[in-house]
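Technical annex B. To support the medicinal chemistry partners, we prepared a structural model of the target in complex with D-mannonic acid, based solely on the information shown next.
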Amino acid sequence: MNIPISLNNKNLAQLSDDIVRPHYDRSCVTTGIVHVGIGGFHRSHEAFYTDLLLESGASSQWGICGVGLREPDRKMAKILKQQDYLYTLIVKHPDGRIETKVIGSIIDFMMGCDDPQSVIDRMAHPDTKIVSLTITEGGYNIDAETGDFDASNPDVQHDVQNATQPRLVFGFLTEALRKRRDQGLEAFTIQSCDNIQHNGDLTRKMVLGFAKLQDKDLANWIEREVSFPNAMVDRITPVTTQSDIDFLRSEFDLDDQWPVVCEPFCQWVIEDKFSAGRPEWQDVGAQFVGDVKPYEEMKLRLLNAGHSVLGILGSVFGYQTIDECVHDDLFREFLKQFYDREAAPVLDAVEGIDLDQYKATLIERFGNPNIRDNLARICLGSSSKLPVFLMPTIRKNLSSGGSIQLATLVIAAWCYYSDRHADRHGNSLEVTDELKDSLHEAAKATDQDRLSFLKVKSVFGDLANNERFADTYSEMIQRVYREPDVTKHMRSILE
Ligand code: CS2
């Protein structure tokens, strides 16, 4: 084996011909987008679309400057800097074909916790037109009880008092917008790229929630001037593993310390509402629409819910990855039936989308044997996912008289999972959830009170008061606790 070449600007020309690389002159690209939260998903999605755009010869004003606000972002900052912000996207097709492409659209990276002023100045710079975010649901600082901005968070209180030394994203955005307003510059757009329903509306609510605590006049200006487009984002991006790094070394003699792996499918449906202009992402596959809501609902209640259905049942059964579940006939059939009987009948029609085709494509995507999306990643944060992915389907079916059995079995299995933190054989499962302890407490009490798990109000709301749901849940709980081999119940429900 040859000595691998480190990925950086200087070495780009020496890479194997099989790796696609940027042909545009990166030294001419300027920062038009500041992105907070550079993880795998941003790099397989927004940065990917933007790279395609730069490659197409479009204006070079849309380079991306990454921002990390938390200590764990430091590793990414360090690696990207060493690589001149280049990284490899490893696109894995279901038939085993692999495409590798070096992405060049990220041109800088800053750590807000080291030097907040530089990050604020970068956001306030006249060239910056968009500040985009992938900060995960947890990053929006939502009060679980009220759904409003959580003003009691000590970091929020710190940021209200220390406008130029913020810790959280809201402080950075607000201070940068203050500078722009004072300098007579137009407001940038704040664009959420998180997989959250009405992500733009939520971001608006939270940014205004913070700004009002700090400066009412500024909050009014933000309310008037800043746009917060909603968007549906989609591309399955599993966690990068050492074997992906090794693959680039052995197949391409390329040393990339943090490549990104993803599926070929990619979708971005965006509300066309940008206060300071935007890239022509529609030229490279994104879709601009008037109303994103139906697309979001379809994605959250089919793709993401489907992931959770397989993720939870599969974990309790003892599977490790999504593709493993989909290649089990029973799990695949259960997923199909969940779509056909419960999820799809309560979805609104989506313009230009053939739902049957969409469902079939999902099953094909999930079955991609090269993606090996880990169930631990899927189940991570279920307490904030299920209320959006699964509960709306249950609630709608409760009011329309539709089936709720399949979804309710999943909730019962999730109770077992939260109680035991183990699969049906007793092998321990890694549980990562903000509410891990409360879920565990509530689930543990199931043997005294079958409905006790439903007491976690921020997840279930008043669902336990619905008689049909309570009865069905109680039946599923008895089944799962009597026989944790969930496939027995899956089979009997399908019969
Ligand atoms: C997954 C998503 O986290 C989850 O539960 O369903 O990360 C999913 O892979 C993406 O939304 C795909 O776009």
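Notes passed to the chemistry partners:
The chain is about 45% helix and 10% strand.
The chain has a mean pLDDT of 96.
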